[in-house]
Amino acid sequence: MNYQKEIIDGGQAQQHAVSRTFTGRVMSYMAAALAISGIVAYLFGTDMDMLAYLINFETGSLKTLAWVAMFAPFGLVLLMGMGANKLSASTMLIVFIAFSVLMGISLSTIFLIYTMGSIYLTFAVTAITFGIMAVVGYYTQTDLSKFGGILRMALIGIIVAMVVNFFMQSAMMDYIISMIGVLVFTGLTAYDMQKIRQIGMQVEEGTESESKLALLGALTLYLDFINLFLFLLRFLGNRN
């Protein structure tokens, strides 16, 4: 009996070790993507020559690159999610890098709207909040799957409300949407991290499949972080 218990305990320890390695890889991909987006956003948002590639200063209209940066990331997310079985891990990595660059270009406009200090402050608050919830999600023994469905439904509600408010232009509704958005993406961070930990305990280390799943996990956490940052920026950001 003790021998069987040792085998079971050893297997579980191996699973946890693989899960930690997998989660570390996911976090590395996510951190690299955030760094790429941050650098690109800063370059385009603070350099008028770079900004000229996005905006026609004479007419105030957006140029082609700006439109591509706005809409192409959605297509790349769908490509990675729906085409994961067909794409190789190296191709998915290239797509993920391209997504990070385009997101950086898209996010560069925040430097035109908000002060530099408030952007840095909001990023720090986002990083701390994200880090706390990621740790909670990874180590909690509570099954968060039942909350996942609720959070996804709330996310759909937020998207619908944002579309409606685009036409209504209600400051009160914008405040409520931002508040709910912060709560939703704070919860999704913990939920997604728990899911990544569970996936890590089932993957086969060193395989093509593991690399793809790590990239998909990084994409999920990246989106959680960015959306949390943008919703917090509505509260903490001081406009220029």
At a glance:
With 240 residues, the chain is mostly helical. It has helices at 2-46, 48-51, 64-82, 89-107, 110-113, 116-139, 145-168, 171-200, 208-236. The protein has one domain.
Description of the molecule:
The protein has one domain. The chain has nine helices and no strands. It has helices at residues 2-46, 48-51, 64-82, 89-107, 110-113, 116-139, 145-168, 171-200, 208-236. Helix 1 (2-46) crosses helix 4 (89-107), helix 1 runs antiparallel to helix 8 (171-200) and helix 6 (116-139) packs across helix 9. The protein starts with a helix and ends with a helix.
Which structural class best describes the helix and strand composition? mainly alpha
The fraction of residues assigned to DSSP E strands is under 5%
Radius of gyration: 20 Å
Return the string of H and E elements: HHHHHHHHH
Separate helix tally: 9
* Uncertain residue ranges: 3-11
For the secondary structure, the number of strands is 0
What is the CA–CA distance across the termini?
A: 69 Å
Mean pLDDT: 90
- Please give the domain count: 1
Overall 3D form = globular
Largest sheet properties: none
- Helical percentage: over 70%
Helices and strands in order:
Elements: H1 2-46, H2 48-51, H3 64-82, H4 89-107, H5 110-113, H6 116-139, H7 145-168, H8 171-200, H9 208-236
Helix pairs in contact: 1-4, 1-8, 1-9, 3-4, 4-9, 6-8, 6-9, 7-8, 8-9
Notable traits:
single chain; 240 residues; mainly alpha; 0% strand; globular
